Structure prediction request, 468 residues.
Amino acid sequence: MMRFDTVIRHGTVVTASDTFVSDVGILNGKIVALAAELTDADEVIDATGLYVMPGGIDSHVHLDQPSGQGIVMADDFDSGTRSAALGGNSTVMTFCMQEKGQSLREALKIYHAKAEGKCHVDVSFHMVITDPTADVLGQEIPALVADGYTSIKVFMTYEGLRLRDDEILATLDTARRTGALVMVHCENEDAIRYLIGRHEEEGQLAPKFHATTRPIAAEREATHRALSLAEIVDVPIVIVHVSNREAMEEIRRARQRGQKIAGETCPQYLMLTADDLDQDAMEGAKYVCSPPPRDKASQDACWEGLEQGVFDLFSSDHCPFRFDDPEGKLNENGKRHFRWIPNGIPGVATRLPILFSEGVMTGRISLNQFVAVTSTNHAKLYGLYPQKGTIAIGADADLALWDPNRRVTITNDLLQHGADYTPYEGTQVRGWPVQLLLRGKTVMKDGSLVGGEEQGQYLARGLSSLTA
Ligand code: URP
Ligand code: ZN
Ligand code: ZN
Prediction:
């Protein structure tokens, strides 16, 4: 009879496809047995009444990213991954932002140094391409993909970050040759700039006008264009942070045409609306993110996209800035004009409880769908499967134990991130991750980190299931 380091007993194991009562045997950080009545172990965790699920994988997280003159992101790799662990995540994929003129290797060196020794969960990097030179496309990306940096993000918006269509095409072509998966932020920058100009003429500068300068049509048009460019090059892409029906329907149609497309939505598009930006005393700045939250009909559409599988990924797009801070949302320029309010909201710790409560407990999605869109699909699409994202023999023992009956009122202090607010303050949820194991070791229990050291590792990744 095998002796284990740890066994988790009497829990209900949930994967993307199955739900079954089983003990889980762990040895050397891996799952080595799934069976009834495993006993012979150094540590026994009683999971009676709990769900045992793969640790959450959040493939869209911004940490310690330069965010403009005088603006500081609220989370570094220490606080951001601490908050991720408290919210039931065992892996986060963060962004490595290429500065103009910078080589990708240089950028990655900087981000590795930022993360080194600080992470409480496992991490990996997507490369953000802002300067697709011949060297970047011809030399660097192919070498980096071979080294396990297998995903890229490109922006169609934000001055200084956006790529032109010819640059996007060239990047997509490199992706096709190398097997990299490209994530696209779809909003039409020229339309947004035009609308900002019109708002300025009218003196419409309050936070709520962030939403009216980034209308659904600007997202839908860019989504359609990104999908068309991908079709022209014949390469799969991921449309990230989809906020509304029209963009979602573009994904559905592209799939019907035979394109290989992944879609992502986020908690803010289920829980918030543009009305949240329309509040007194700059309170609306807390909800400024791009694309902006829309309306109730858009929320319903995003739920439909999750239920029907149009969205493969449910990610946080955690991009935290402090609110009451001259280096955050309320910087001097931001107080005068919405365009200087840094874009992004915190959410890495609340992603899973919100979807569990609003999705699973309401019956909108099954437990298995929950695991698929919060963990398994992230592992598959970004080249970590089956090491991550499932409960199977040989997989890393990254496991989240969920109490489905735990009722929690979300407050900022619970989340232990660097931001001084959460957009979900006061939201009541049912279901909470009460314990998290990372490669077999408990790293979080009952809302506190345990184990002492930062145990997260950097993950090199294989090719995406979509491109392989
Ligand atoms: O407002 C957002 N989403 N900020 C993060 C950057 C991005 O576009 O993902
Ligand atoms: Zn984006
Ligand atoms: Zn983002």
About this structure: The domain at 56-368 is CATH 3.20.20.140 (TIM Barrel). The CA atoms of residues 126 and 149 lie 7 Å apart.
